[in-house]
Amino acid sequence: MTRLAGCALALLLAAPCFAGDASGFDPAVIDRCLAKAPTQGARADCAGTGMEACLDYARGKYTGDDPDFPMANCLDASHQAWEAKLTGVYEAALEAQGERAAKPPEALRQVERNWLQFREALCNQARDAAAEGKGDLARARCIRDETARQVALLMALGDAE
Description:
Structural class: mainly alpha
Helix content: over 70%
Order of helices and strands: HHHHHHH
Strand content: under 5%
Radius of gyration: 17 Å
Largest sheet: none
Number of domains: 1
Shape: globular
Number of strands: 0
């Protein structure tokens, strides 16, 4: 299967192939928001940044009959962008801890593993508690928001150095 055919199939299955491209979400909005946010709390508030523009774009492009598709598309694209940001911030935190022999990076790795389990459990709970038919959106929003909070937390570790 060619990449284009794979992307067409993924689009039909409501999974954007190129987050930031076909989805209408611009990952650069995350960097701009984080750069302006002076504190961990303000950085966590960046979770929903870029969603309005993405939704406007998605609503203009989507002609199907699923009213939740534009939101699902944008939440997925936003989450993918936050995951990419988390990877970079996490790797920088590991490197910084590795340079300080007193705090081995294994502790941070364990914290991150525990956080991933927490995020999954929390967001599964959000899905289960959502109104009927809205569970997947609630879970996707939770995953995106918790990932943004973790980025803010890891960035705050770097601020404290």
